[in-house]
């Protein structure tokens, strides 16, 4: 009985994090983008600096009519938002935020594989949405999503493999236990490749060709309204949280910090994740969108060779220090 | 072409599903099945059903999505057999990449919403024969190989990453390397086929200044 309660409690906490952190990132994006562009952003909802803007947005989304286009494939159209969102919830279960056993939803032996595998499934949601909408802009968005995913999955996996080689394990807590500070310079190329490829997988600017508003309206999500549209947006922000947390765990040492390691490890994890989320927002404000051919070229001629070089470097150093 | 690939993949799915179910049926837990065994059988049935729908549905994209269910079901079966590593690799490679590639191909060529009555190549019975033969061979091999073996669920994990890695790189290195050479050959072949002969790509125009990526 105690075990059941324990598991239920953990799942509840993960679910709460899943609901809160993406909204925090979203609100931060509103404000950070606004200030970088010389405006104020939301100021009214909730009183203090518009903190409740996203809550108000949520209420608005819930009130909207849920429209399914007449020619759409009804069931797949309605299923797609869930397929896009749920994988990120599952991934959060495996990410450790602190050194103790109680600071991770569930320790998974092949955690690295679990995380990357399940994250890849989320893209199926965009493909389903793009196809089922019976809209050519949606279909174009779906196509671009698929092309982008195929190009960026490989460098992401290779970069992650480099860390797994360095640590000698694919368990996420195991990788963090093996972490030393000099891994930062050692794995820095892998970290950059991983983060860039992750951004592309989330379709965040500058890799937002699949939802390029000036060309194809809103890509795969063009026909969506109300709560289903909100679920897609939530998936994007949950994806940012997952990507930043994962980069923190794999490349930035997670709960390790220069001081206060005892009991305060989770603060370090959250802090690093927050800084990375800020970088994600920053990139959105400061970079123009890449064209499709530039996108593919970047993946195949820059990121993959860099990731392979990182793996070679990891192997050489690993053999040398043994 | 795509239909054929789908059929082949689904055949594999059906074969593995059927083989796995058969393996569960044999064994001492048959009369007093444990929860895991019941779950295994149920997931096996779902997998088999999804695989059958994959090859019989008239809607191409639905077939690809049912293939997702079938391949996911196999991943769950691996999990129940404690082969955790293999299960996640299955999700990563098949669900995350192969199905996405398939959907990409479908969308790029022809993916109407609704039925496509012309999607039958007329080889239905040949395909069925091949599928039954493949499934029969797989069931026979699996049942014959694991007739009296069952997994001790309370003991040490038998399919962890460490164990899988050790077995793969100690006992099965040669097949592993042979397979990687085969894949490399396929990769080089694909590169060669996709290159245009002699005509260097001269579309290196400058990127036009675009509006900031604001949605």
UniProtKB/TrEMBL annotation, chain A:
Keyword field contains tRNA-binding: no
Main location: membrane
Subcellular location: Cell membrane; Membrane
Keyword terms: Cell membrane, Membrane, NAD, Quinone, Translocase, Transmembrane, Transmembrane helix, Ubiquinone
Record flagged with keyword Lyase: no
Domain of life the protein comes from: Bacteria
E.C. number(s) listed in UniProt: 7.1.1.-
Pfam families, sorted: NADHdh (PF00146)
Catalytic activity as recorded in UniProt: a quinone + NADH + 5 H(+)(in) = a quinol + NAD(+) + 4 H(+)(out)
Transmembrane stretches, start-end: 7-26, 79-98, 110-133, 154-176, 182-200, 229-253, 265-286, 298-321
Membrane topology classification: Multi-pass membrane protein
Quaternary structure and partners: NDH-1 is composed of 14 different subunits. Subunits NuoA, H, J, K, L, M, N constitute the membrane sector of the complex.
PANTHER family: NADH DEHYDROGENASE SUBUNIT 1, NADH-UBIQUINONE OXIDOREDUCTASE CHAIN 1
Function: NDH-1 shuttles electrons from NADH, via FMN and iron-sulfur (Fe-S) centers, to quinones in the respiratory chain. The immediate electron acceptor for the enzyme in this species is believed to be ubiquinone. Couples the redox reaction to proton translocation (for every two electrons transferred, four hydrogen ions are translocated across the cytoplasmic membrane), and thus conserves the redox energy in a proton gradient. This subunit may bind ubiquinone.
Annotated family: Belongs to the complex I subunit 1 family.
Entry protein name: NADH-quinone oxidoreductase subunit H
Organism, scientific name: Streptomyces antimicrobicus
Gene: nuoH
UniProtKB/TrEMBL annotation, chain B:
Cellular compartment(s): Cell membrane
Coiled coil spans: none
Top-level class of the enzyme under EC nomenclature: translocase
Main location: membrane
Catalytic activity: a quinone + NADH + 5 H(+)(in) = a quinol + NAD(+) + 4 H(+)(out)
Membrane topology: Multi-pass membrane protein
PANTHER family: NADH-UBIQUINONE OXIDOREDUCTASE CHAIN 6
Record family assignment: Belongs to the complex I subunit 6 family.
Protein name stated in the entry: NADH-quinone oxidoreductase subunit J
Organism: Streptomyces antimicrobicus
